[in-house]
Fold each of these.
Amino acid sequence: MPPSTETPPPGEAFFASLLLLMSGFLLWSAHGISGFGSTVSAGAFPMGAAAVMVVCALVFLERAVRRAASGGAMSSTAAASAGDGGVAGVDASPSPAGPAGWRRIVPPVLLWNTLALAGYMLALETAGFHVSSGVFLLLSMRLLGSTRWGLNVAVAAGAVAAIHVVFQTVFSVVLPAGTLWQG
Amino acid sequence: MSEALQYFFMSWVDPTLVLLAAAGTFAGIYIGAIPGLSVTMAVSILISFTFKWPVNEALVLIAGIYLGGVYGGSRTAILLNIPGAPAAIATALDGYPLAQRGEAGRAIGLSTVMSVIGGFVGIVALAVAAPAVSSFALHFGPRDYLLLALWGILLVGSLSGGSLAKGVFCGALGVLIASVGLDPLTAEQRFTFGSVQLTAGISYIAAMIGFFGVSEILAQMHRAHLKGVRQDVSKIVPSWRMVRSHLPLSLRASGIGVGVGALPGAGGDIAALMAYDHARRSVKQPTRPFGQGAYEGLVAPESANNAAVGGAYVPMLTLGIPGDAVTAVIIGALYIHGLKPGPMLMIETPHLFWFTVGSLALANLFLLVFGLTGIRLFARVVDTPRPLLLPLILVLSVVGAYAIGNNIVDVYWMLGFGVFGYFLKLYGFPVAPVILGMILGPLMDRSYRQAMLSAQEDVLTFATEFFTSPLSATLLAALVFTLLSQTRAWKRLRGRDPRP
């Protein structure tokens, strides 16, 4: 996806902190595999990789904090940073920190769809592929703004039927049948 | 030779394989054409359905999806000024102005024919170069593989995201994800945290679908409300005269495509941009000024990005090193099918090599057929409202992840990686190095330990040996140069960084 913005959205320093925490934890875990005992131990190479991650995460955090300090607020990192990626559609201009900034990073439509996807996955084995997929498709289409229920039902039913024929019948993929219907 | 020809044409005479080549190319074109849905994503999702198939069927489908996907991105670049894939960014520069002049049909036709020519040049290069590279690769030692893999990750990291540190971070993360489970040499548990599920490791296909598919769809939700733009397309088959007049440029651009595609980490997107730059420099009298609808600006990138496909197969099949993100995904699939890409592939299973070359050639022919037909259907697919399309792709991703081993845990991993990948992309981290790290991690770990053992665990001897072998020294120099070229001091020296 081509980046639409020159600058990353707010929350960069927070994200860099999380990456540093994660990298530190991985380094500690890698050390726990076999310690510093041997240069060819099972943990030697993972430890090296985790150490590289820690160093990189420190660099990100230092840059993000520096940008935040020069901008005066966490959210203004967006305006000051020289980002090289991003997600098209995310407004990267400075905004008040807090809920407003987070809503721009994770808008309600994305949050609700992710929760619907998680619920769909949890329901897969219980309700089975066909029912859970149908319900998820209808719910997700509605959440994304498609209000033509007739069309939504037709597309959802057609898609589930097509997946059943193509994948279960032709590709021999075993789709979850659902424990709920098996008694 | 006759055996090679026999295997080359195997996919051409079997109706099932012909059908799969057609289906793969068709699916690749249409998925690659939808902006935001990358060819890597298409390959990641569709490949997961082939794991239970015989290897030939899977190889044919993969070849079709890859070639079709690289080409498909050009259509939306021409019609909507939105490259369907990074490899089509350069195509939009002159393709869209052509569409604005009412020449969309002609532009699509020309780009199709040039893509097919580029594709064939890449395939010929693969057939000629791969056996030679493979013989040479037999001289590679563990040290060289370690360096080559490191170089590949560095190149992908620096080229795909712009920030080397971000690329390196993601590559190292991929290496760590790949090391989860039992150590293949000592059977010690690594990052399992006492979980039985984790001892089997994390499926890289689930990670691929998560990082490339789910994260992409989540990112697309920011723009779910946007409507497509309808375009008219007319007659598209270009005249022979037009093709002939652009043939020399197409062949030169294809050469660039093959060379760049064969470099570890550099794929069709870089090849297309370099070929466009070459056209601008070498064509003194373009049909129109570049950027305003010059045919040459369309011919060069389209020839190069499809030629890069054949080029990318060379290091993948001969060294086991992916040429780009798509070949990283394909290597993963080959392992699952019991194949080991590398120099021994050509020796142990030469028939599979020639079969792959033949499949690519067949898929390239289908590219010509589908590229010059079905434009109306194409326009309808591109117009599909996102609120309907995005949930459908999510369901396909779930089916793909579940199909790996009929295990719901793979689906959970996919979601986890998808959400994490979304945030990585949001803050400008390239996700391709994660997958490359996952694929190359075990090779690097093994190579490092073999090299260290051969140096009797003496760090100084281990380090010295990098300079005593000419091959290792060359690879080390390439690696160091890649690192240096990303530093601010180097960019200032080259006048690309105005910051003090």
Amino acid sequence: MKQGHVFLKKLPKQILQYAILLLGAFCALVPIVSCVTTAFKNDEEYRTTSVMTLPESWLNFENFKVAWEKADMGKAFLNSFLILVCVLVGSTMISAMLAYVLNRFQFRGNHLIRNLFMVAALIPGIATQVTVYQIMTVLHLVNTLYGYIFLMLGTDVIAIYIFLQFFENLPKTLDEAAILDGCSYFGVFFRILLPLLKPAIVTSAILKGVGTYNEYYMANLYLQDKNLYQVVSTSLYTFTGPMGSQYQYICAGVIITMIPILIIFLFCQKQIYSGMAMGAVKE
Amino acid sequence: MKHRILALVLAGMLTAAATACGSTNGKTSKNADAKPTVAYKDMQVGETATDLKADLKILTNRTDLVDSDFQDYISEFNAMYPNITITYEGITDYDTDATTRLSSGDWGDICCIPTTVDKSELSNYFEKIGDYGDFKDTYEFADKQMFNNEVYGIPTMGNVSGVVYNKAVFEKAGITELPTDPETFLADLKLIQEKTDAIPLYTNYAAGWTLTAWDAYISGGATGDADFKNNKLVHSKDPFAKHDDMTGPFAVYDTLYEAVKQGLTEEDPTTTDWEGCKAQINEGNIGCMVLGSWAVPQMQAGGPNADDIAYMPFPISVDGKQYASASADYCYGVNVNSTSEEKTAAMLYIKWLTESSGFAKTQGGIPIVKGDAYPDSLESFQSITLVTDNPAPAGEEDLFGKINNDSEISLDSDSTHVASIIEAAIGGNQTMEEIADEWNAAWTSAQEKNGVTPE
Amino acid sequence: MDMAAHHTEVGLSKRKRQLKWSNVNVQKVVVTLTFLFVPLFLLVLFTYLPFFKMVQFSFYDMKYIGARKFVGLQNYVDVFTRDDCFNALKLSLYYMVGSVVQLALALLFATILSFNPKGGNFFRGALYFPSLVCGIAVGFIFKYFYTHGFVLDSILGLLGIPEDMLPFWLKDIRINNWVLVASSIWRYMGQNMVLFIGAIASVDKTQYEAAAIDGANAWHRFRYIILPSIRTIVVLNMILAISGSLSVFEIPYVITDGGFGTSTYFVLMDKLAHANQKVGLASAMAVVLLVLILLVSAVQKLAEKKLDSGIRTSKRRARK
């Protein structure tokens, strides 16, 4: 009885709550959903029907095929995959090692280095590209995959902070016990701490991975030979040229590039949220 | 102690990185002295060095031809030179991206020389192809990329600057005579709007690069003066100011301004579609577009009505006479850092493209070899005097480029200034006179910066 | 791993070395230097060296290619006197207003979602997903969305608003910047929201019950319990959003390419650097913006300290 009463009292508030949530979800999803419906329409439908009508057949993959071929997406996905693997392995190792040293060893300059990375995070990447380009040119890193990978390795501050947070919560007694057992500091890091870092590694890898996969500006600037070095984001951009506003193809391209992200998101929601939450409760 | 070690390491890194940046571009610049084995003028395509082995890469602005015509050219050329492999790379935003890539030195073997390169800088990036004397009598426009009488680029083709239009639409609107001044032109556009469903003038705003076409009309076409662009424009005061007889640059840009302001262009320029416009004009949904003669074959190929597409001079008359400027399109340049074999192969290919491929004719342009037949689309220009810009005098080769760039108006290379006309005409926040005043001010200060006193 | 093992073996065979290696301090120095080398090298190479070079370039009149000329402070004078730079900075105000809306929405959704409504996971995912989408894709999605007669117009059409009454969203200079700001909110709101959800999760739950007994409603609960507890993170995000507003790039770059008065500071800088080849001027613009961002961040640091001490004193007072 009482339960029901409370329920009734709460009802209008509940309705309001869900109305807000539904409206929010609607706004968030409509732009994407309209792309999906358009991508399945054939030429005739695209020209004659309104954006809001559903496609005749959800099995019309013609646009996806055209988009895939025109934008050379096969190669783009292969390149992006190669880049992702290298960048993720590299940046995870680099950031974890750095965070380990900064967290475990108190030396003069420790604070300075932390601040150097802090300030670096404030400098928007695009601002310095004019000069980074010159450096890349001199080092012969322009127009090579490894050059771009090298560059992407060097700009990760978020991962370092996630690892620093995580090390805070790993007791130092772990290290000390291992050292007493005759383990070296290298051993402590690689054998004891790195395996314990797994949740942090997953989170930082997802965030870094999504960032790398989506990165356009530098990929466009440094991977110049689009015949060879097309990546997913730059291949998507090719639609501005030859396909102008044939949105049935563009939408298909957009959906194709979104699928990997969607899959990662659906499977790793927890890690993403917990990683973000870790950032939220810092201090 | 540790602090000092850290400081040392940091300092070491900085110097290592800094010295790395001080060293010169080593990978390819050692080839700068390598010369092609045969001089361009002596090359006999099909006979010279047919066993030559080389891999060539070509940067082109013609993204539309990379998978079609260019592939045919390659296989034709390979019939004579089976050991030369050629790959094309198309770049959409050509001038900007190609300039960025030039600076890295490692971009390929042949490219269309971007308009941003100063003439005096040509030799740093491109191999000399010959002396002006070698080409003067045989090639058109050989002076386009020239410094100290040394030629660094062979034009891909020549363009005539006019207006591509749909004859059927014009007829339907009752236009019997082609307009020869801006006022009549605008009146005709209005007729098209009233009597047909077509968009009278399509701006192609969104594509960006298409807008720079407008800059090609301001010199020869709008003045009838071959000295205007490279000699007068750089020296005169307020070149963008309005002339009472509606000639000169102002008349050209004002035509665009008025057309947009009077609603004679597409409703929403931000969503124009370059590829789509070809079918639209072909099918009679667009009246006309202001583009160089290179656009004609593309519009003809855009749909079933190739015969409806025609080309007319820009509607400006100087003392009752119409002119049209004829000028070189992009020029092929050969990378100065390529090897001797690559340079030879590159020049052979360029020579073949220029003299034997028929590229200019199929693309609706003026052939580079003097005496070759003009394409049919240029027939309406027979009564028109074609004006080719004279080159700048010695010592002033770079002046136009420098003033043009410093003023940020960037005629021919960047479309922002033309886009701003369309934006102002729609927004109503600036008149064409005010825009011209702004440009004149920018032009004047750029002239002063480069030591020119405007007259 | 192997390296460590190798070192120990070598160390065992040679006494002197073993002595040295087992010396914890020496080991520490070696580990520190090896582990620091790569990240610091990359940091110096791709962040600080370019930064110093950029400062240097900002005193020159130069193109990417060709000769350069020292011009002193002229580029800086230009940055401060040019109308377009100033207008571009003014555009940041739109995005600042937008970021306030964005944070408010994020707080609203975060608060609702923190009390586990049915389907909360779906809503959280739907609202967060846009922030994972590639910027270029976002550009296309919204170009399509705003094109006359397409998505947005159709939706409004369903609501009974005729198409000819609707403006051209990207062309009309009275609204196009707001339209772009809306896309920006769409893209980044989810990120703030998830952060806030994380922060709210750490709020002591017993406070809600106590408040409920006192008859507090949802607004009271938000205003007097949640907001004070997550104040630091809200302020932090606020300031991040402000410096983010100064450096907006991708959204206008892809959707309008800076046309019709939507050219933000970075879009303008990119154009000057690449289309106009004014590398010196673009560098000066970048330096000016960095100084602005550093100033904002300094304010943030101060605010954080103030807040911290504020919270501490208020807690102390509460205890009394």
Amino acid sequence: MNRSRRLSRRRFLQSGGVVLAGSLLGGAKAADPAGTPPAIQKILRRAEAGASSGTRVIVVGGGWSGLTMAKYLKRFNPAFDITLIDRQQYFVSFPLSNPWLADQLSLDFLSHSFFDAANNHGYRFLQADMLGLDRESRRVYTDQGYLEYDYLVLAPGVEYDYTRIGIDDPAQQQRLFQHYPGGFVAGSELLTIKRKVESFNGGTFLLNVPNGDYRCSAAPYERACMIAAIFKRRRLRAKILLLDMNPGITIKAEGFQRAFDELYGDYIEYLPSSEISGVDIDGRRLETTFDEYPFDDAVIYPPVRASSLIEAAGIDNPKDPQKAPLTDPFRYHLIGDERIYVTGDSRSQPFSKGGHTAHSEAQYVAEVIAAHALGREAVWRSPQTMCFSAVDINPLESMSIITYYRFDEHSGQFAFDRTHLVDHWDPQGGQASLAWAEGMFDDMFYG
Amino acid sequence: MTIAAARWLLYCLCVALLLGGLSPAAAVEPIRVVLELNPDIENGRRQFAICARCHLPEAWGTRDGSYPQLAGQHVNVLMKQLLDIRSGRRANPTMRPFVQQRTIGGYQNLADVVAYISTLPMTPAPDQGPWEPETAEFREGAEIYTARCASCHGIDGGGDNARGYPRLQGQHYRYMQRQAHLVRDGLRAVEPGMAAVLAALTAAQVDKALNYVSYLPIPAADLAPDVDWRNPDFK
């Protein structure tokens, strides 16, 4: 749920946890459980989540990838016994959260129950925190005990990598996260950001765009527009300082530039090539390679990396700066292990990180796994990245882009295939963004 | 297949729903409402802008079968799919919100948009099946298609607008294959006649028949000049 829990779990795993896994989890029956603290005993028991029947599939992560995966796995193979695990109590959508910041839709629209998803689609939901993995005995360890799998899908998403903006001390990372959350990982971040925007009384509101393959490439620009729209509506004497770690706007560039100039010229100051090198949390100053920027309030979005669960499971690729696992680029399974699949934003492929990509990808990977169970093969198809960006409000006006990917045989890499960009904003685009989200939520939770 | 000047019929099946125990009647007969609408292509183009955000301005679909080719399809077929998705009869949760009264509007807008789509030229490079002409599988597929499918879908795969049978010419092989298997697996509801034909064939036979269909020639007049053609309405 929050950063401290994540950090403490990671420390646990990196110190005693892994050793524990080595000695007790590895099947050493001689180990004396009497000397083990009750909290540890709990995780060493089989989870009481219900008896499994049929082929056991565990999906870790109830985001756009995991929810879609669980639904379509069941649909493609009703004999699968599926358990979806997430540590959150309920789902909050990050897509469309920027229009919510600007009061264009309600939090109810973005919030959904894992129970509804599981009940409507015939699988089990277990609120639990994955701690580790033993591939030999095919067990996933969680804070609710262990579960055994025939297939395991890991879709744990991303985490912030504060080291890439010069914050190395875990205590400082936690403070920065808590005071100036980036708004792309946990629900509480969104609520805090909304409160910040609502209570802002003027001055400098600092936002940034991370570099690398960060989650939702258009979202930081969209967020600047939505916050500016609110400030404009309130006629606030305020400036949004948008520091971009990239040399220019990374997506829908002409559209966003026009929005900054035409709609929010008095509010948004856009500064590209701003390499963030540190943050003075108490002094409210952000440092870049060449400058310092004082701020009155801020939303600081550091670059991202694959979830530390991938590392905890011992399957990360040490050569990958995002710590993603080494997986087959077309079949998504771990190299050398066709029982374990990694999808969503912690995937190794360079697809744009975001909800729609994860949703379309998961439908395909569900086919891959269902086919594998039958000794067949599914034919590769590209994920799609559909991305709406809200620019103006009352009524909501949005731009959109859709893109596909293809594998380029010459370079041996994925490249963008057909793309359709609508880089002017209009109410039809705003309405389409709401219909898109409604359809996605319906597919993952109800339909 | 031009329908630009034509008046055409829209069949809408309105089924009165009975809630158990609430009505004394044993059964209520379905009521078929027949509307006749004059399509406005220009309005259809405006409406299609919202569709194009996902289906792309050419409406060609994708060779991997994740989207169908809509260009060149019969208006009555397109209309039936829109209405089935609108009502939930054809399960498509992600498209459903886009075709509601509150989003795309009433029957006139639906008529306009399908009329516009039917005027679009088709891709000259649809996905084709793995068995080229002269192979045994191709010939077997031809026999199956001719015997089981052609009476409705046409010997040339052209379908039948009046009867609402889809045009299969130019449809992506992997799209047809996925849909046929969804029907066979009970995951997509279709007309009973269609379901019966698919149920009577093995999966391999279905694939071969669709393979044959994917090689049926498309009339040159219905094709875009090349794969790089882009819909000038959305430049």
Amino acid sequence: MNKIILILQREYLTRVRKKTFIISTILFPVLYLGLIFGTGYIAAKTSSVLKVAVVDSSGYFDKGKLERENQTDSSTILTLVNQSEDSLKANYKTLGFDGFIIVPANTSWERGLDLKLQMGKTLGMEGSSPVRNKMNNIWDNIKNEKLGINDSIKHTLQTSSVRLSQKNLNDDTANSGIATGIGYFSGFFMYIILLLYGSQVMMGVMEEKTNRIAEVIVSSVKPFQLMLGKIIGIGLVALTQFALWILFIFLIYNVTGASSKMDASMTTGIVGGMQAVFTSIDVPLIIFCFAFYLLGGFFFYSSLYAAIGSAVNEDMREAQSLSFPITMLVIISIALMSAAMKDPSGPLAVWGSIIPFSSPIIMMARIPFGVPGTVPWWQLIVSMASLIIGFLLTTWFAGKIYRTGILMYGKKPSWKEMLKWAFRKS
Amino acid sequence: MPLLELNNLKKYFATQKAVDDISLTIEKGQIFGLLGPNGAGKTTLIRMITGIFYPDEGEIIFDGKKFDPLNDIAYIGYMPEERGLYKKMKIGEQALYLAQLKGLSKYDATKKIREWFTKLDMESWWNKKVEDLSKGMSQKLQFVTTVLHEPKLIILDEPFSGLDPVNANLIKDEIFNLSKRGATVIFSTHRMEQVEEICDHIALVNKGKKILDGTVQQVKHQYKENLFRVTFASQLTPEHLAVDLFKVIKRNDQELILKLEYANNNEVLQYFIHKGLQIESFNEILPSLNDIFIRLVEGTPVTRQFQEVNQ
């Protein structure tokens, strides 16, 4: 037992003191936030106002309507001009426009209108949509006027709609929106951790082979102890890094005054939202289950990754190709998550949350919908038990492969050979 | 009581019988040479002694009791042929880590590391990384990590490979010192000249079987060819040599190499004295271990062949 602790201490300290750890821990949140705020900032600063000339031969579009729209959306400016199409085509640029639109004389408000935005370049679909929206708003105005729809009728049309919310007869507190949000979040979080740190375990295990120190270590400790020490040590590094990331993002968010951009109404809105979250879901249970499934899933997958790491010979490509099936399992789980979330009580969701391969992701997506409302207690217990049995099995299996693989240099073994190692008596 | 007894050990792999019924006894304080060509089964045998592999058949008795890998490995130090240390780890820290894995407390380990580093002139290395060392330096380091915990049994697999003569000598001296202090050393190598210098007892294995076992002197006498070298102060004439007592293999001016078949040494000496020749020296030429090795192993294929194993 002490030896496992010695090993995990060494694994943890070696990784945490490396420059790459510190850099990636600080860099990631900085980059992430930089991306979010930066792109928005750059987009705002560099986009130029699109100036479009409008020639109206129909008489529907008047200056006042265009002015009103220009004031609402200043990213484009529509101006009424009085020229022929040909002369405009020749000199729209010198007049200071980026392009022009000709509204034909035979326009009728009862039929639709096909207009062409003529420019010296081609914009993306997003680029021309503000113009289309403005023209549609003006067109709506025109239609309303012609139909005699006044403001109060317009108001009724816009605000009277059907809103649909859910009520679970078996569970009063369930809230679909919040549950879906938290479910997705947990699922993705789990997915990232499993993939990222699973492969870290795989590379960590290859370290003894690359350094050729495997035999020396294995003459002092049992291979199983070495494997376990590495898995736990790397797991702790993962936890540390995540905790630091959350801390950093929190700090940066507060310090850079991003919080000052929020005004009082937004803050109360968020606080109110948080309260709703806390009442509709069982937070302690979710936290407990999240911790359980994170641990269970991590052990389950990282022991498989460790088995592969011990079997290959320092060649990352071999490692990647052998580990492909495992990575696929995680990806499939995430893909199934969306389908399962449409009906969290349906058979896909139930089975997905019990089978150990997908249960960390899918069960965590289901739980916010309510225990025992959506997830009966028996399902939760069966799922947890099968995950425990699952990771005990994969750890045992990995141990067998590890003890043979780690001393072997030479050709890359196939899955069939590795299975033989697992079942051969040592 | 011998430190290590191997009784009828067998270890078969799918492609070959790596160890096929080997029995050995190693007494305390011996420097024991384990010899054999490539693929003979030496490394597999060693891995069974260090608890890395478990024998298919046979038993290992360590210090009078059945070998218990979990606990006994604290008393064994093993330097494998495949040299390796964590490249990016600092040296002092790594020696400490390896010693603690063997069961030493942090305090004891630190103390012993400092002692050894001073002894072998390695004090300035503590904070350097292993990748900064040359090959000879890293082998010295690996030697230190092997013997740090004062094991009863030290197993060295090709310890001198890649070392320059100065460092090889240093390690050789340390092996002698350790043996004097009571450690038992198993020393596996192909380099016969080193074996003659260092080992008292040897065993030769080939194709998984033991084909020689004895002290160096015993083995040499077993394979001697009754050759003797005699040097004279006086000149030799052909007339001196026309006798049935011996056969002349080689002759220089004042030196003879003779093969004695029936006569014993005293008869030959008396003959020369009787002839009035002044004898300067007379000694037996024992075969070198290298010659014995080649003679015994010759005829087996140069590399180990794969064979079908029916269990």
